[in-house]
Amino acid sequence: MTFVFYAENDLFSADDDTAAYTGSIGGGNLTLFMYDTTAGGLTVRLTGEGVSGSALTLFGAGLWQGFGTSLEGGDLSVLSRTGRTS
Amino acid sequence: MTQRPLTPIAAAIGLTLVGAVTSAQAASITLVNATTEVVVNGGEANNGLVPYDGYFRYTGPRRGGETTWSIDPLLRFGDGSTAILSNGSAGGFGSPVDAGGGVVRSTATNNGISTRADTELVGSNARTTFTFEAVPGPGWMA
Question: What is the DSSP letter of B90?
Fold first, then answer.
């Protein structure tokens, strides 16, 4: 079974928003960020940890409609171990 | 430190689980401090990933804007089916309950897996801890 944690944001507005990440799953230090490329000053940080009985395996980001619909339908191909966009 | 841009503006992480509580209040529960407000809906949102109003809504300290408004934890099972935990009307979380100590708790059981989500407001951070347990079923022996 796979647990997926999904977060959707409008930062100041829906315009100019993007996502990035630092670290890696292999390095045990993956962090996702969502921010506005023009407004600045606000970053949403999303971190996940594989703890006892689980392992962090996939991540990604995308435009909310298609991305969210894919995940909701069980299509995890929009995620990958190295990060994927859709 | 690397930082490679991804495409806006929803993001998700997946954890593969190896091996793998509630009373009805029918209301969301709000955690608030001097700078931040988190409204925990549990399954009260009754929707999926695309509509707003997910498991919780977060209003942060900057400009008073509600920046994070669709948080939707989901389970994907081996047969490809999913359970959207923010959708209480489809088997997701029930109404959240105040577990005390600043913790708001939501629970659900799907496909033999019980899920408990405990959300706290720590400074300006919303922190949710998920716990998964196999539910004893027919043929299960302690």
Answer: G
